[in-house]
Design brief:
Blueprint lengths: L1 H19 L4 H8 L8 H23 L19 H17 L3 H7 L5 H29 L4
Helix pairs in contact: 1-5, 2-4, 5-6
Protein name: Sulphur transport domain-containing protein
Organism: Celeribacter halophilus
InterPro entries: DUF6691
């Protein structure tokens, strides 16, 4: 049952991204082109997602003690704005502005077998692996005794 629900959730997400045009990098890049062919439709897609998520979280946390397929809800507990958060946000934004894809928009677009989407996805995976490596390296250096 968990696998079926996971598939259905992914299918709904992919359909939403595709139907809204957010799997099309030209549409996303036009959103960032304020002095050219500006396309504000991304604001409405994001706004709709924020409203649905806000309502969904409020309902979930009031009605349920835990998720159906997990022992507890996993939500961020830290509200600290640190260098990792700011740096990650900057890298995400720059990558989104250059490629026209965010990870969520790229996943449904993989099915189009467009080389640029697959190149973006490969760069995304490489970036994730590099970030994990650097975090481990930083943690190892911090754990070393001074002296």
């Amino acid at each position: 049952m968990k696998l079926i629900l996971t598939y259905v959730t992914g299918l709904i997400f992919g359909l939403g991204i595709s139907m809204s045009g957010m799997a099309n990098p030209a549409k996303v890049l036009n959103f960032f082109d304020f002095f050219g062919i500006w396309d504000p439709s991304l604001i409405f897609v994001m706004g709709g997602a924020v409203v649905v998520s806000f309502i969904g979280y409020r309902v979930l946390f009031k009605r349920f003690e835990s998720p159906v397929f997990a022992p507890k809800f996993i939500v961020p507990s830290s509200r600290v704005i640190d260098a990792k958060l700011v740096g990650g946000s900057l890298v995400f934004g720059v990558g989104w502005g250059i490629a026209g894809f965010c990870p969520g928009g790229a996943l449904p677009a993989l099915g189009a077998f467009n080389a640029s989407v697959w190149l973006f996805f490969a760069a995304l995976v490489a970036g994730i692996l590099l970030a994990k490596f650097l975090m481990k390296l930083t943690a190892a250096r911090a754990a070393r005794p001074a002296g």
